[in-house]
């Protein structure tokens, strides 16, 4: 060992050796998991409710995607980025964050209704948990039904044996949620196609000009992307896209 490193090693042991030894002598708390028998049924009921609550929290992202406008918004944003050709700009984090805030803005009336009719009465011990869930589902289901075609609902209702529903409000969430999701995807793809058209026209014009100039080895994307970004900025593209999304979900 080189002698010039010896003082540094000794200094390290003096400074950090004492705390490390002291830390090793201290007791570390342990965590024990056990399954015990209970004599009171209410204790078992409380445990089951906690497990159900943890399960719901773990499924919260899926519930957000399935029952809100998040699916339509994030798909439109990804189509827009692909159409402009900016690759990872804006990044996925930015697009998802913007989609989340727009989802909250659009769903605010529904969330306010859920809070007024279900959450607050439940917190004030005015209603039971099951009644609170039933009241919370009503405005969410109404939002989904307002933005779902009868054709999409019929697709799943025909294969779901739940008796004859007198109205769309009588349909189960097992029918409403998938119908709502495929309708959101349909609309998002339609808007994505409309976003692609002007950008595709710019690509074709740039490719034709490059071929006429004999510059076939130059990728047209390198030339067309600045023009697409310029066009998107001149027409105030973000305002128009977000405005169309909000108007379509009112």
Low-confidence stretches: 12-17, 19-26
Total separate domains: 1
The sequence of SSEs as H and E is: HHHHHHHHHH
Integer-rounded radius of gyration:
29 Å
C-alpha end-to-end distance: 75 Å
Count of helical stretches: 10
Strand fraction: under 5%
Number of separate strands: 0
Query: Major beta sheet, specifics?
Result: none
The rough form would be described as: elongated
Average pLDDT number: 77
Task: Tell me the structural class.
Answer: mainly alpha
Helical residue percent band:
over 70%
Characterize this entry briefly:
The protein contains ten helices and no strands.
List key phrases describing it:
single chain, mainly alpha
3D architecture notes:
- With 250 residues, this protein is mainly alpha-helical.
- The protein has one domain (57-248).
- The chain is 74% helix and 0% strand.
- It is built from 10 helices and no strands.
- It has helices at 6-25, 41-58, 60-67, 70-84, 92-123, 129-146, 150-157, 173-212, 220-234, 237-248.
- It starts with 5 loop residues before the first helix and ends with a helix.
- 18% of the residues are buried.
